[in-house]
Design a protein that fits this description.
This protein is of the alpha/beta class. The chain folds into two domains: 110 residues, Alpha-Beta Complex (Aspartate Aminotransferase, domain 1); 221 residues, 3-Layer(aba) Sandwich (Aspartate Aminotransferase, domain 2), CATH 3.40.640.10. Helices cover 42% and strands 15% of the residues. The chain contains 16 helices and twelve strands. Helix 4 packs antiparallel against helix 13 and helix 5 runs parallel beside helix 13. GO terms for molecular function: pyridoxal phosphate binding; transaminase activity. Pfam families: Aminotran_1_2.
């Protein structure tokens, strides 16, 4: 028997000592065993990352990436600072602590969780796996396109289903598109960019029914902005054994967009499958420490939500005063139809130091405004009144 132990195996054994956390086999070996997948160029809408990069740094109001300007919390900041002194060490034990904290709160096992540096690597892992062999990914249109756009780059098929008349995901129409070639159905709830929320009972029934035919991926990036996230989450469908993946992130209400921490909850076999496309150990020691301190820090989350809602109500009042309609929001952004070309509107707002996003759908030009601090919303109002 070999007396050597590689780093990946030591991570795994150390994690078990920290509370039974399972890590997965070496990335290099896994990638070597995988068939080559070639990404091809894809014509698509601007991403939030690209919008921020193009905007530069001279902004009075950065309202284009759905960030939380009120976080991270003081407790998270202190934990991050305290973790620096030992950041020369691999954070094997602390990552196990974070896994177990989430597992305990959700009433699941550690092997139902896979964590990465934000949810983006996990969306990519799903895109790679579930698009194999030209499989199709079914989504709403418009909806968050990170997963399906990557699947299409990998020669998967992207089936887009228009939203309902009230700008919600059309579950019935999406289910009707499921066939033998469907690799995955992607549900973003609340939806991005429309900020609409699905009826919980209807979505749960959809997940239980459709997951018998194909994998259902529910992206709950914005669920913490709901009054009662636990009442709306689809984690319950995972707990009852359904073929459902639920994605969560610290990037929104927790204020960790720049710290990068996200995870999925799914059946253990699904977690093992997705882990084949991830490192399983990409979080920094400082991020882990901050996430442990921040997770379910109810007073901070309540305060950040109240501030977000206050800014949102102010935005509603501005739009109403200027004669604009809007889609009622269940997240930290608001979408409304424009009365001018979307690109021109965004450029003119940018000239005034306000960054926002534009979309085209339903034969209309739309603007999506992320919710910021009140001073940022006032900067939006000043610029918007000059153009409206």
């Amino acid at each position: 028997m070999s007396s050597t132990i590689n780093r990946r195996n030591w991570i795994k054994s150390s994690a078990f000592m920290a509370g039974g956390l399972a890590f997965f086999s070496g990335t290099i070996g896994k990638l070597a065993a995988m068939p080559a997948r070639v990404f091809k160029p894809l014509s698509r809408a601007l991403t939030d990352e690209e919008a921020v990069t193009n905007a530069g740094f001279e902004l009075k109001a950065r309202l284009l990436a759905n960030e939380n300007p009120f976080g991270p919390s003081p407790a998270a900041k202190k934990a991050i600072q305290d973790a620096i002194d030992k950041s020369y060490q691999y954070p094997f034990m602390t990552q196990g602590t974070l896994y177990n904290k989430i597992a305990q709160y959700e009433g699941i096992n550690y092997n139902n969780i896979l964590m990465e540096s934000g949810s983006s690597p996990l969306l990519l892992a799903a895109a790679i796996h579930y698009s194999k062999g030209g499989k199709s990914i079914i989504t709403g249109d418009p909806s968050y396109d990170d997963l399906p756009s990557h699947a299409q780059q990998l020669e998967g098929k992207w089936i887009k289903v228009p939203l309902t008349v009230d700008y919600k995901l059309d579950l019935d129409a999406m289910e009707a598109k499921v066939d033998d070639n469907t690799g995955l159905v992607y549900i973003c709830n609340p939806n991005n960019p429309t900020a609409t929320i699905l009826d919980t009972a209807k979505l749960k029934a959809f997940c239980e029914r459709v997951s018998k035919k194909t994998t259902v991926f529910v992206d709950e990036a914005y669920i913490d902005y709901l009054p009662d996230p636990q009442a709306s989450t689809m984690i319950s469908t995972v707990k009852t054994g359904n073929n459902v993946i639920v994605a969560r992130t610290f990037s929104k209400l927790y204020g960790f967009a720049g710290l990068r921490c996200g995870y999925v909850i799914a059946q253990p076999d699904t977690i093992k499958t997705l882990s084949m496309y991830t490192t399983g150990f990409s979080l920094a020691a400082t991020t882990i420490a901050g996430a442990i301190a921040a997770y379910r820090e109810e007073d901070f989350l309540k305060d950040a939500l109240q501030k977000t809602n206050a800014s949102k109500e102010y935005l509603y009042s501005v739009l109403k005063k200027e004669g604009y309609e809007y889609i009622p929001s269940s997240a930290n952004f608001v979408m409304f139809p424009l009365k001018m070309d979307g690109k021109k509107f965004v450029n003119e707002m940018m000239k005034r130091g306000v960054g926002v996003r534009n979309w085209q759908f339903n034969s209309k030009e739309w603007c999506r405004v992320s919710i910021g601090r009140m001073d940022e919303m006032e900067a939006f109002a000043d610029a918007f009144k000059q153009l409206s």
